[in-house]
Structure prediction request, 90 residues.
Amino acid sequence: MLIDYSFFALSWKATQQVDSDYRENIRRTYTKELQLLLYSIPSRFHQTIQRCLDSIEAVLSLPMVLLHRDFGTCNIIVDKTSCHLTGVID
Prediction:
């Protein structure tokens, strides 16, 4: 079976505009969860978790792209002419 991967490549080039409230909600959620993790795991992991906390602003300043946890060719419908996503199945 020949798979056209052009959609995957194009999806990373077509970043999406994301509402600032959405980004703020993500920042709060990730910060809360990482802080809980920081206090719940052995101290040998604290430096790594702290680096993640310190990097949240940098990470959230990156462009947002399409993400699906089971993002495979069998779960998407793509217009072969334009390479635009027309559906996600799961």
Remarks:
- Residues 1-16+64-90 form one domain.
- The chain has two domains: 1-16+64-90, 17-62.
